[in-house]
Amino acid sequence: MSAAGTGNTVGSLSLRPLDPLKDAELLHSWVTHPKAAFWMMQEAKLQDVEREYMAITASEHHHAYLGFHDGRPAFLMEKYDPRYIELVGLYEPEPGDVGMHFLVAPTDRPVHGFTRAVITAVMDELFADPRTRRVVVEPDVTNKAVHALNEAVGFVPAREIDKPEKRALLSFCTREQFLATRGVSL
């Protein structure tokens, strides 16, 4: 995966499967940072992060990837099957639905357009699988910044839902909606 093809100038973006033990210390510093408040792991200990990502790695329905910017760790992507994880009983899944979470690492040197490039690259990655017909997200209703990013890549809000940990804005993005934001039609 490369951001070069997404019409931005942030550099190269790539992903690899997360290694929960090797990457836990880095992830811990990200998920406990004040900028990651919506990740809801502010009070997590290193062992909690290891345990959480070992469970994700062991699941056949939930996967985590470490994202790199020009070879340096810079973001986290999770994809999940909403028939089994996160949204069970909260909406009627359709064939080809894939759930997604992403987190950009905190930085002292922000790059203009970087988060938009990351979500675009994440969506490119998810839609690279021809079985993916629609991406589903459920961010906190108060997370206005991510709502704007989601809209920029084609997500359309469906409704608010109550999850055990938050009130969320259930939103969907089809392949066609995503491609339309990039000036591509099928």
UniProtKB/TrEMBL annotation:
All residue ranges annotated as the Acyltransferase MbtK/IucB-like conserved domain in the record: 16-63
Role this protein plays: Acyltransferase required for the direct transfer of medium- to long-chain fatty acyl moieties from a carrier protein (MbtL) on to the epsilon-amino group of lysine residue in the mycobactin core.
Name assigned to this protein: Lysine N-acyltransferase MbtK
Pathway: Siderophore biosynthesis; mycobactin biosynthesis
